[in-house]
Structure formats: structure tokens, C-alpha cells
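Hi R.,

Here's the input for the 2-oxoglutaric acid complex you asked about:
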Amino acid sequence: MLSDYQDNGYFLLKGLFNESEIDAILPVIDCFHAAWQQQNQQFYTQKAVNSAYLTNRKYLSAQQRQQLFSLLASHKIMDILPNTPIVTPAFMNTQLFFNPLNCEQKNYWHRDPQYHLTLAQQQLALQGQQVIHFRLALADEPGLELIPGTHKRWDNERELAVRLQRSGCNNFDDLSSGVTVPMQKGDLLVFSANMIHRGIYGKSRMALDILFCEATAALLEFVDDDCLPSVESLTFLQNPSAFAASIAIKRTASVPVVAST
Ligand SMILES: O=C(O)CCC(=O)C(=O)O
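And here is the predicted structure with 2-oxoglutaric acid in place:
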């Protein structure tokens, strides 16, 4: 897995979770999604393809949040992190990807950091600290299209023109370097946030995305305190180390020592 990640920037784990494990978390996801839609009606109806901050207290009960934290800190998820280049993993955020209401809406090629970094900074980020997506398919979905190797190389001329909509290109134009990775319910796709990618809309897609990063203050600046579990509840999680790392950095205190169960 690690060499796949190093070479291509991604790997797919088929059937990591079984049907009943996914079904157990769906009521929590559905509850979040319904409440989020209500609060973000205009955005949802006009163009949204994802929401974020699922573990925030705003939408879920304490019990629902704990159920979600238990999944995110499960051995199944956490045991994959040593197969990535992240040395000290910290939890960053969660996102939920769904279909846009408008069936005509086009998907778009991007690198995640392009929305907050200059081009020069994006280039530098290719050698810097990693942010990695763990995308868990909650239903069968067309998946993602990824450009292998772009987690460590810069765009070629065509990729850059498409991604940035230059020289008459659109960010939804096809790129011959793209590889489509369809996903089935329970599959987990691990991929670099830096690489060029786009979602593929269709089916009843619903994917939970967990973002992990290297435990550095610069990256954890993006973490919302209200999305983290309480220190007391960490002991109930199978492997709380990524949450503990985020809490410690956010509090600029030492990492709480919590044994894995
Ligand atoms: O599924 C999508 O629509 C896009 C996914 C994506 O861009 C991401 O996870 O960063």
C-alpha cells in the first residue's frame, strides 16, 4: 500500500467495511445531512456537492458524535495510517460528498490547496507535509478520477490550463492522464489532497471523507475545536491517537497519553 501511495498518490481498499458496519453509521450520517441541508438550503439547492464538519456539536447529539468518533478512531481506519507517509497523524476534519441537485452541474479538476495557496506555494507543497483523504463509500458510487503521480509532480501544460480554466479550457474538460476509480459501499480510497482529482457524480453517491495530516501547528490551524472529542471520551475509542494529537496541538499542551484498547 505504501509503495502504491508513494508511486501514484493513492490506493483503494476494497470491502474494508461490510454492509452491516456501514448500515450502522448511516442513521447518524442521514441525520447530519438532513440538518445540514436545512441550514444551508440556498447553497445546497444552487451548487453544493459536499458538506463538512460532521463531528461538530451543531448538528449531532453527544451519542451520535461518539458513534462517529468511534468509527473514525477504529482500528480498521487507524491501522491504515502507517501505510501512508504521515509520521505523526492528526485528525483534521470530515466531509460528506453527495450528488448536486442540478443534474447538469459539472465536476471540476483541482488540487485541494489551490483554494488557499498561490501557484508557487502549491508547487512547494508537493515536497511538504501531507494531507491525506480517507474516502469511505457509504453507497456504491462512480468514485473519483485521479491523475497518478501528481501528488509529487507539477501539472503539465494541459493539466494546468484545465485546472485553472486558462487558454479557453474548462475545469471539467477531460484529461487523458486521469484514472477512474469506481467505489462500492464499504470501500476505502486513500489519496493525497495535493494530487489533481475530481469527483464523478452519479448513482446515489454518499461518501464520508476523513482528513488526516501531519501533526503540525500550521496544518492544524484548519481544525475546528468543536469537531474534536472531549479528552475524557478518548478512552472509549479503539485508537484515539490522531484525535489526541490534534487536541494536544490545538491546546499547545503535551499529547495526552491514552492507551489503545
Ligand atoms: O467527490 C467529489 O465531488 C470531489 C472529492 C474531492 O474533491 C475531495 O475529496 O477533495
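One thing worth noting: The chain has one domain: 2-250.

Cheers,
M.
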